[in-house]
Amino acid sequence: MKEIHCYSFELEIDSNIDLVFECLNKDEHVLKWNSQIIENIYDGSENDLEEGSTFITRQKIGKKVYELQGLYTKYNPPYQAKVETETKEGVSKTEYILEETSEGTKFIVNVYLVPSSWIYKVMTNMFKWSFKHVYDEQFNNFKEYVYQIEYERDK
Q1: Pseudo-torsion of CA 19, 22, 23, 28, nearest 10°?
Q2: Which segments constitute the Activator of Hsp90 ATPase homologue 1/2-like C-terminal domain (predicted)?
Q3: HEC per residue, the chain
Q4: Average pLDDT over all residues of the chain
Q5: pTM for this model (two decimals)
Q6: Which fold has domain 4-35+76-154?
Q7: Residues 89-123: pLDDT tens digits?
Q8: By the 8 A CB rule, do 12 and 107 touch?
Q9: Is pLDDT above 90 for 134?
Q10: Distance of CA 73 to the CA centre of its chain
Q11: Which of 13, 108, 114, 148 could form a disulfide with 97 if both were Cys (CB 3.0 to 4.6 A apart)?
């Protein structure tokens, strides 16, 4: 089935690209700004991530805890990471793109779903507007967290 673009987010972060990527990809940071992720369990070490690396992510959405198998389909620090997870609804693809700018870092996120059935295709198209509420909050938290870490490191 064809993938559906469900969400996009873009902002400028007045910070160095390496710090932005570190806060986006290292669990010591991610667990502080992303309220949905409980833990990530890597096949190997988190420090050895590369394209093809797999992991299990435990996430709490609402009152339910989900355990999902993740796969890095792209991993090009500090410029890009793309992760896929498979659920009964289909394959979720989240892509992070970072670009150096004169002001700091341009941060772009795109989320896609390849529905597993026509029912999930219809449901995704009907409710993809709701992704914005959940993801905007997380990525605005991310931005504030990057600034907090930068401030603490500059002390």
Answers
A1: -130
A2: 16-133
A3: CCCEEEEEEEEEECCCHHHHHHHHHCHHHHHHHCCCEEEEEECCCHHHCCCCCEEEEEEEECCEEEEEEEEEEEEECCCEEEEEEEECCEEEEEEEEEEEECCEEEEEEEEEEEECCHHHHHHHHHHCHHHHHHHHHHHHHHHHHHHHHHHHHHC
A4: 94
A5: 0.90
A6: Alpha-D-Glucose-1,6-Bisphosphate; Chain A, domain 4 (3.30.530)
A7: 999 999 999 999 999 999 999 999 999 999 999 99
A8: yes
A9: no
A10: 13
A11: 108
Which residue type occupies 152?
E
pLDDT at residue 68 in the model: 94
Q: Domain boundaries in the chain?
A: 4-35+76-154
72 close to 53: Cβ distance less than 8 angstroms: yes
Q: What is the pLDDT of residues 50-73, one digit of tens each?
A: 999 999 999 998 899 999 999 999
